Amino acid sequence: MLYRTLKRMIERDNTEGIAEKIDIFFAARKLNETEYTELTGMLPDTAAK
Fold first, then answer.
1. Distant-in-sequence, close-in-space partners of 20: CB < 8 Å, separation ≥ 6
2. Is 20 exposed, middle or buried (0-12, 13-18, 19+ CB in 10 A)?
3. pLDDT digits 0-9 by tens, 1-49
4. Rounded to a whole number, what is the distance in angstroms from the first to the last CA of the chain?
5. What's the maximum distance between 2 C-alpha atoms anywhere in the chain?
6. Own/partner pairs, 9-14, CB within 8 angstroms, 24+ separation
């Protein structure tokens, strides 16, 4: 469910601060490696920095 919510936020271009959130969720094992890779790949270059 978290993965789907994050994906929907990225698709709706609501990416402010989302890169940091994705990193935190991955570190806390709320996202697996496949989900993390897909979500970070979807981010625009400016959100990933």
1. none
2. exposed
3. 999 999 999 999 999 999 999 999 999 999 999 999 999 999 987 654 4
4. 25
5. 25
6. 10/39, 10/42, 10/43, 11/42
